[in-house]
Design a protein that fits this description.
Blueprint: H1 2-13, H2 19-29, H3 34-41, H4 45-59
Helix pairs in contact: 1-2, 3-4
């Protein structure tokens, strides 16, 4: 499964990521919006957007990197 491979590579390359950061990455990887993530995690949208920004900055991701795998 390609998404599992992407998560494995992410975990190997960035072992310092927390479980919540890995969970956020998985949700972003399947192209969930901040609103959808906020609803699912019972957080406010602004908190999700902040976490998303910090994750991208932490692992130097671009918008392209967050797109789902083909």
């Amino acid at each position: 499964d390609e998404s599992h491979d992407a998560l494995y590579i992410l975990t190997r390359e960035y072992p310092q990521l927390t479980e919540s950061e890995r969970r956020l990455y998985r949700m972003l990887h399947v192209n969930m919006s901040s609103k959808e993530i906020a609803t699912l995690t019972k957080k406010i949208i602004r908190s999700v957007e902040t976490a998303r920004y910090r994750l991208k900055k932490k692992i130097s991701l671009t918008t392209e990197d967050m797109r789902p795998l083909p």
